[in-house]
Amino acid sequence: VKKNPAEPEFHQAVKEVLESLRVVVEANEEQFRRDALLERMVEPERQLKFRVPWVDDNGQVQVNTGYRVQFNSAIGPYKGGLRLHPSVNLGIIKFLGFEQIFKNSLTGLPIGGGKGGADFDPKGKSDREVMAFCQSFMTELCKYIGADTDVPAGDIGTGAREIGYMYGQYKRIRGLSEGVLTGKGLSYGGSLARTEATGYGLLYLTEEMLKLNGQDIKGKTVAVSGSGNVAIYATQKAQQMGAKVVTVSDSNGWVYDAEGIDVEALKEIKEIKRERLTEYKKYRPNAEYHEGRGVWSVKVDIALPCATQNELLLEDAKTLVANGCIAVAEGANMPTTLEATEYLQANGVLFAPGKAANAGGVATSALEMSQNSERLSWTFEEVDSRLQRIMVDICHNMADAAERYGFKGNYVVGANIAGFEKVVDAMNAQGIV
Ligand code: NDP
């Protein structure tokens, strides 16, 4: 805290991981101390902060701050998304980059951890303004990334449009047609099923976690928060599995649709028209729209937070438990506060942490990298079936690691340990670097 003041999200993420690792560290205390393994783990290999000037539609110059934190490359090139949101600062990018190390390790694929972004708000900007920002952002970032060094992807505020503009600028400056970004459009090297991957993966893992505990997802009622990329495809897959999703939200309000969220309407509002959820009632007159937050007040069996960090608080956890919720799986990164997580676990709610539950996005990004390297495209079914296998494996690995260390059923501890073991092994093998 003294070394990195004013980075509360980063401290929160580190605290959760280090607490989980206590048993592992205690078993090898001397080596951990001598080799400063944890000290090296929490210090990024490199962090970049840079100016992003661009001209808005009124001819006014705007200045944003860009970031890329290259956290850990022990098991492969840095990999992690770019967040475009006004709340972005170094502490948030560091928390996301730190989480990404263990998440990427859990996928079983050779990718290190990194994250980036800028305090730019794409909302309400014209396409030309978004392009101007993305080109300026990439003009600086392109000096530090590459298909074999650091491969950014999308995150909040960065979708296919933004990735396209960034990719175009990278190619123009560096002259390389390579898989330097993932989440690309299908016409220039993107992977089928990448758009759906995080939400679908969340449901594959949730289904497996329920199975391990003698439950079935079919027939369950589900609350989803958010209405972006993760939320939309989580809703779609949950419904394909026979569950009923009754809520979605954005930063202004939330929708309750007792008959089940209409995914096609949601996609049209968010992906095509880029409008707010207030529009939803036009498609489904019987649905309710409420200002403010409230998704977790609805009686559901399963909660899937898919919006942003710290959106499920202790009071929400209490309501979910009182309403008989049996499982929470994090589609977003760190959406549940530490106190809320502890409360849910203490009350017997199955809890899948984001670094395991939302790893399907980055796993499919790594599959996009493989396709780019061999200059081939796989079918949707091929990518989707690999994604399914990866998520089922992650579920078993986190459950097994928890059990091995005497924390049966504690998937937070299990995911942290399972992700950590491979990274620490690779760091040890590569010496003091
Ligand atoms: P999108 O930008 O597509 O959607 C984000 C959603 O969350 C929107 O509904 C947005 O509402 C809402 N939201 C964002 N910030 C806030 C806030 N401060 N308060 C309330 N609501 C907010 O992002 P994604 O769906 O891609 O990402 C959602 C989460 O999933 C993030 O935590 C991200 O890091 C994580 N994630 C994403 C992956 C991916 O592949 N996309 C992979 C792994 C994790 P509004 O429109 O009002 O801003």
From TrEMBL:
**Which InterPro entries does the protein's record reference?**
Aminoacid_DH-like_N_sf, Glu/Leu/Phe/Val/Trp_DH, Glu/Leu/Phe/Val/Trp_DH_C, Glu/Leu/Phe/Val/Trp_DH_dimer, Glu/Leu/Phe/Val_DH_AS, Glu_DH, Glu_Leu_Phe_Val_DH, NAD(P)-bd_dom_sf
Q: Where is the active site?
A: K115
Q: Which PROSITE patterns match?
A: GLFV_DEHYDROGENASE (PS00074)
Which Gene Ontology terms describe the biological processes this protein takes part in?
Answer: glutamate biosynthetic process
GO cellular component term, pick one: cytosol
Site feature Important for catalysis, where? D155
Sorted UniProt keywords? NAD, Nucleotide-binding, Oxidoreductase
Alphabetically, the GO molecular function entries are: glutamate dehydrogenase (NADP+) activity; nucleotide binding
Task: Tell me which residues bind substrate.
Answer: K79, Q100, K103, G154, S365
Pfam family of the protein (one): ELFV_dehydrog
| Domain spans labelled Glutamate/phenylalanine/leucine/valine/L-tryptophan dehydrogenase C-terminal | 191-431
Q: Which residues are NAD(+)-binding?
A: T198, N229
What's the superkingdom here?
Bacteria
The entry describes its oligomerization and partners as:
Homohexamer.
Q: Which PANTHER family match?
A: NADP-SPECIFIC GLUTAMATE DEHYDROGENASE 1-RELATED
Per the record, the similarity remark reads:
Belongs to the Glu/Leu/Phe/Val dehydrogenases family.
Which protein are we looking at? Glutamate dehydrogenase
This protein's gene is called gdhA
